[in-house]
Amino acid sequence: MLRAGFRQLYGSGYILYTMYKMKYKRIYMGGCIMNLNVLRYVIEVEKNRSITGAARQLFISQPNLSRDIRELEEEIGFSIFTRSSRGVIPTEKGREFLALAKRAVKQYQALENYCTREERDNISLHICVPRASYITCALTSFLSKNARGRQLSVNYNETGTLDAISHVSDRSASMAIIRYPDRYEKTLLPLLKLRELSYETLYKFELVVIMSERHPLAKTSVLTQDLLSQAVEIVCDDTSLCTYLHESPDADHNENSIHIHERGSQFDFLTGVPGTFMFVSPVPDSVLSRYHLVQKKFHGSPRKMTDLLIYPEDYRPSRAESAFLEMLKESVQ
């Protein structure tokens, strides 16, 4: 009866049956079983005329997107796109397929809107992150804009790199942002592949110095290691990666230091303990203003870092997760 209803709704067996379950959607078309998300992917590729550009817009890795398109082409028996150094363009059959795919996606969206009111009324987000104000600000903005009138299930876990990788690997978190010094990249990325995790660069930056507006160095134009060595450094390091790699934690911190293990108290120390400073990722102006802090560039050996978005290889973001990632991307920019 259900199948017959869909035939009547969508026409002569074109979409015979549709199944919706959590984030994974599949449709039966012409005897083929297709992931609805892949249809959305090829539509985005046509729109961008580029697989790389489409992957960026979809927040998935380019190799995964290429693989999904290749598997779809193998399943339907013809090429959807012609690839060249200047990008991709649809083949003749590809244009016909894309027109039908757009129709299928539009029809499914109508059905989904009817059947998934509960999803629209709820926001579920489980993510592990490093201690970074720009990420917290992005989540705050996202919830402020989208949470009113909805039921929330948000698990925002500030934790270390190895813990974040474990949480995503065992699916207790749907995605994570991990932070590491660039020198660890060649060792870390194979670990992610071993755990069957995909990844993409979210933010590359150099650590900056923040301190109170009343700090004796607050008006100094050039901060050097010699100047900072006379001050008290607040250290909030993730040493798990060093331990995993059997390396000693960074030795370039001041001997005169306060070590903390959570981000919340850092602002209390910076504003309440005279002469303190901290190396952090760039901080949004709104946070600096709220806590009466200044942010300065360090003139010394560059401390280059990467924030990496990681997720299971078969992961596809929910509507809420995609919206949050878009807002996070805007925050980075």
Automatic annotation (TrEMBL):
Q: Which UniProt keywords apply?
A: DNA-binding, Transcription, Transcription regulation
Q: Name one GO molecular function term.
A: DNA binding
> Which PANTHER family does UniProt cross-reference here?
HCA OPERON TRANSCRIPTIONAL ACTIVATOR HCAR, TRANSCRIPTIONAL DUAL REGULATOR HCAR-RELATED
What is the top-level taxon of the source organism?
Bacteria
Q: What is this protein called?
A: LysR family transcriptional regulator
Which organism is this protein's natural source? Eisenbergiella massiliensis
PROSITE patterns on file: HTH_LYSR
Q: What would be one Pfam family of this protein? A: HTH_1
**HTH lysR-type domain boundaries:** 34-91
Which GO cellular component does the record give, naming just one? protein-DNA complex
The record ties this protein, via InterPro entries, to: LysR_HTH_N, WH-like_DNA-bd_sf, WH_DNA-bd_sf
